[in-house]
């Protein structure tokens, strides 16, 4: 475990001030008019050449549209104009750089290699230059995205990238004023790497330790590393079937609501399973497609068998189970079927005998019953006492 901090700010970041433009020599009015006339002539020539190019581009787009009618001329014209912007974002290796790179693999001086072997470069054929360019491009891609094979190479790569990130964050801290922290852990046991923490300041680490409950970077780093090596699968980290079922039900509930919000465009949409036809299909004009569980109810009432729950969870996650928009005819058929079911299944309740009258609350009724019971008991007792005295007489 390594926890490092950014060095204290020992420099004052000064704002970048634009340099004062140097004033040109004073010109006479006649000379300024001559320069303006020359500029107008030059601008007219450039516009004329650009106009020719644009007319040729339009002609080419129309020709392409005739030869390949799948697209309109405007689409081909846009493709030609946007291609320049896309090509400017990537820098392709040239033949000379690829040739020098192939010679300098042993660590020799580039200038000496250039001076000694420049004649060999000029003797290369176009095919050989293309092969060198392809080799350099492949090496660049593998350097950026290819997996490191050796343990030492992986560790060096992690350290190098982390140092670059730390430098960028420090520069951002000085320029605009930020505080940041990061944690880097490995997700494979193939090479040794301790969890790496970095804070822009020691005070930030102390504050989090003192104010966030159980914020211990050492323990958090070890736990994050173990979770990453296990495949970042929270489901497999759960201990028993009950926990796994509860996790799946919670995820299913959230994903169903997210899918409903996505389909309706209403952030306040809520799922209704009991009145699905009325509240979802008819109200929002959508229905769910691809439901795999044998029970269509709120996830909390589903059985805890993991197989069906996991199948439904995967279907929602992979978007094979989702909400789809109903066509007007489908919605009309559902409306008609819903009204028929309501008419056939509606129950007519018998009206209460005290309908329209104010009724006592349960507490008042129970209190009245208790009082009546006490009165009846007292009456029974009095009658018993009275009957006994008359017999004595």
Give me some keywords for this one.
three-stranded mixed β-sheet, 393 residues, mainly alpha, extended, single chain, 5% strand
Task: Describe the 3D structure.
With about 400 residues, this protein is mostly helical. About 65% of the residues lie in helices and about 5% in strands. It has 14 helices and 5 strands. It has helices at about 30-65, 75-90, 95-105, 110-125, 125-145, 150-175, 200-210, 215-230, 235, 240-265, 275-285, 305-315, 330-345, 360-390; strands spanning about 1-5, 180-185, 195-200, 285-290, 320-325. Helix 11 (about 275-285) packs antiparallel against helix 13. It is extended, with a radius of gyration of 41 Å.
Entry summary:
The protein is mainly α and 393 residues long. It has helices spanning 29-67, 73-89, 95-103, 110-123, 126-145, 151-176, 202-211, 217-229, 234-237, 241-264, 276-284, 306-317, 328-345, 362-392; strands at 2-5, 181-184, 196-199, 286-289, 322-325. The protein starts with a strand and ends with a helix.
What is the ordering of alpha helices and beta strands? EHHHHHHEEHHHHHEHEHH
Number of helices: 14
Largest β sheet strand count, sense and barrel closure? 3 strands, mixed
| Morphology | extended
Overall number of strands: 5
Poorly predicted regions are 379-393
Helix percent reads: 55-70%
Strand arrangement, major sheet: 1-3-2
């Amino acid at each position: 475990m390594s926890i490092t901090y950014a060095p204290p700010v020992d420099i004052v970041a000064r704002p970048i001030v634009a340099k004062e433009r140097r004033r040109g020599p004073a010109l006479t009015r006649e000379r300024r008019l001559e320069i303006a006339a020359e500029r107008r002539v030059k601008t007219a020539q450039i516009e004329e050449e650009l106009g020719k190019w644009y007319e040729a581009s339009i002609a080419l787009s129309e020709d392409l549209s005739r030869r390949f009618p799948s697209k309109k001329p405007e689409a081909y014209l846009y493709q030609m104009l946007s291609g320049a912007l896309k090509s400017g974002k990537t820098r392709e290796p040239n033949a000379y750089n690829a040739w020098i790179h192939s010679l300098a693999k042993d660590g020799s001086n580039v200038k000496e290699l250039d001076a000694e072997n420049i004649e060999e470069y000029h003797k290369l054929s176009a095919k050989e230059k293309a092969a060198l360019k392809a080799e350099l491009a492949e090496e660049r891609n593998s350097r950026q995205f290819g997996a490191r094979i050796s343990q030492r190479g992986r560790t060096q790569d992690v350290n190098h990238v982390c140092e670059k990130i730390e430098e960028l964050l420090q520069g951002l801290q000085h320029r605009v004023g930020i505080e940041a922290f990061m944690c880097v852990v490995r997700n494979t046991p193939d090479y040794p790497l301790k969890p790496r923490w970095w804070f822009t300041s020691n005070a930030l680490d102390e504050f989090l330790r003192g104010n966030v409950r159980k914020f211990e970077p050492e323990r958090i780093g070890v736990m994050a590393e173990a979770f990453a090596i296990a495949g970042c699968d929270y489901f497999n980290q759960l201990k028993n079937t009950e926990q796994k079922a509860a996790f799946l039900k919670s995820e299913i509930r959230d994903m169903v609501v997210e899918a409903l919000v996505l389909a309706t465009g209403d952030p306040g949409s809520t799922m209704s399973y009991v009145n699905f036809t009325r509240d979802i299909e008819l109200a929002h004009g959508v229905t769910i497609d691809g439901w795999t569980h044998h029970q269509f109810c709120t996830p909390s009432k589903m059985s805890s068998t993991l197989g069906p729950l996991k199948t439904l969870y995967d279907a929602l996650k992979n978007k094979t189970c989702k909400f789809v928009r109903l066509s007007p005819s489908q919605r009309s058929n559902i409306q008609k079927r819903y009204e028929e079911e309501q008419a056939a299944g509606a129950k007519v309740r018998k009206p209460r005998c005290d309908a329209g009258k104010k009724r006592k609350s349960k507490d008042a009724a129970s209190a009245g019953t208790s009082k009546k019971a006490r009165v009846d008991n007292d009456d029974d007792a009095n009658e018993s006492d009275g009957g006994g005295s008359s017999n004595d007489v």
